[in-house]
Amino acid sequence: MKHATRLILVLAVATLFSATIYLQDDPVHAASGAMTGAGTPLFESQGRDIFVIDGDTIMINGEVVDLAGMDAPELGQQCLHNDSFGDCGMSSAMQLRKYFAMAPFAVRCWAGDQERSGKADDFPIVECGIGERDVAAAMITDGEALPIAGYSHRYDSLSTEANNASIGIHGGDMINPAEWRNGKRLDGETGGCLFRTAGTRHYIGTLDPRFADTATDGSTKICSDEEARDKKLVYLAPAP
């Protein structure tokens, strides 16, 4: 009887400890819904007015921001699935664009947790929701992005579920986006760098309809949004 009581006590303590660790994870604003006291959003816009730069970067109300807690494959990045290469970076960006284009509610974005964002600079980090749907959680659930470790336990568990089901980028071989940005590639990968300089101070991506019109002989190819920022470049603002 004493042994059983001790075992129950040990299990209870372990459960309480696990719950405490989980509850220490600060709630994601976008996951708490616009009607549940998440605070005043920094940005609010109709989804059709949001411009997608890549799988985790958007322009909303004229501001370029990163979606917090997730890292998507880069635009030119390829993944290997069933012995064939696919443009998983472009797929992620197009999925994000579809979320916004089909949004039945206004898109609201709150300030993300900069310290847990995994970003080395002070670039704006936001958590965006469509109604009560957390955009980053949706991207991770659909296998279009990876969670940034430690940002949200909710994101970690969603990624584990997507991985177990081999959904999206989990269904084949892929270089971690951070490693891809540092130059690592899959053997045989032929993806290109789909950003380039636009003048001396700006850059532009291939998803932008102005991309072809801004081509110049002096344009430099850039492999990621992060690389452009490292070069102190600013995304080419839309015409007023």
- The quaternary organization reads as single chain
Q: What does the radius of gyration come to?
A: 20 Å
Helix content: 25-40%
Instruction: Give unreliable regions as ranges.
Output: 7-25, 33-37
Structural class: alpha+beta
Number of helices: 6
Sheet with the most strands, sense and barrel status = 7 strands, mixed
- Tell me the total number of β-strands: 15
Can you characterise this structure?
- About 30% of the residues lie in helices and about 20% in strands.
- The protein is α+β, with helices and mostly antiparallel strands.
- β3 (about 55-60) and β4 form a beta hairpin.
- Strands 1, 2, 3, 4, 8, 9 and 10 form a seven-stranded mixed β-sheet that branches.
Key structural traits:
seven-stranded mixed β-sheet; alpha+beta; 240 residues; 15 strands; 28% helix; 21% strand; globular; four-stranded mixed β-sheet
Summarize the structure.
This protein is an alpha+beta fold and 240 residues long. Helix content is 28%, strand content 21%.
Task: Write the topology of this structure.
Elements: H1 2-23, E1 43-45, E2 51-54, E3 57-60, E4 63-67, E5 70-71, E6 79-81, E7 84-86, H2 88-101, E8 107-111, E9 125-130, E10 133-134, H3 135-141, E11 146-147, H4 153-164, H5 177-181, E12 195-198, E13 202-205, E14 221-222, H6 225-230, E15 234-235
Parallel strand pairs: 4-9, 13-15
Antiparallel strand pairs: 1-8, 2-3, 3-4, 5-11, 6-7, 8-9, 9-10, 12-13, 12-14
